[in-house]
Amino acid sequence: MTITKEEVLYVANLARLNVDENDVEKLAAQIGNILSYVDTLEKADTDGVEPTTHAIDLTNALREDVVHTHPGAEETLANAPEKEDGMFVVPKVVG
């Protein structure tokens, strides 16, 4: 499939891309090659092939979602080097 310079510039404008005039012909050839490959893929016989969402069969690798109790404020602050009014005291980092 052949792509014209005008089509490349039109798509670049839609995508808000600045394309150097020296690169337009090169991009047109590359896009044409990509579209030709897509045409080749469209010729593949896919009758009887189920649609998939992923190329390989995956299972969830995450742990089960289990509710846990969390420590209270006193227990959380027990090892804090400095605390004040139930909060951690940290050095000022914004001037």
UniProtKB/TrEMBL annotation:
Matching Pfam families: GatC
NCBIfam families: gatC
Organism: Desulfoluna limicola
Superkingdom of this protein's organism: Bacteria
The name this protein goes by in its record: Aspartyl/glutamyl-tRNA(Asn/Gln) amidotransferase subunit C
InterPro entries in alphabetical order: Asp/Glu-ADT_sf_sub_c (IPR036113), GatC (IPR003837)
Gene3D superfamilies for this protein: Glu-tRNAGln amidotransferase C subunit, N-terminal domain
Keyword ATP-binding (UniProt): yes
Entry keywords, A to Z: ATP-binding, Ligase, Nucleotide-binding, Protein biosynthesis
Catalytic activities: L-aspartyl-tRNA(Asn) + L-glutamine + ATP + H2O = L-asparaginyl-tRNA(Asn) + L-glutamate + ADP + phosphate + 2 H(+); L-glutamyl-tRNA(Gln) + L-glutamine + ATP + H2O = L-glutaminyl-tRNA(Gln) + L-glutamate + ADP + phosphate + H(+)
Similarity-based family: Belongs to the GatC family.
Physiological role: Allows the formation of correctly charged Asn-tRNA(Asn) or Gln-tRNA(Gln) through the transamidation of misacylated Asp-tRNA(Asn) or Glu-tRNA(Gln) in organisms which lack either or both of asparaginyl-tRNA or glutaminyl-tRNA synthetases. The reaction takes place in the presence of glutamine and ATP through an activated phospho-Asp-tRNA(Asn) or phospho-Glu-tRNA(Gln).
EC number(s) reported in the record: 6.3.5.-
Lineage, uppermost ranks: Bacteria, Pseudomonadati, Thermodesulfobacteriota, Desulfobacteria, Desulfobacterales
Family matches, as SUPFAM superfamilies: Glu-tRNAGln amidotransferase C subunit (SSF141000)
The protein's assembly and partners: Heterotrimer of A, B and C subunits.
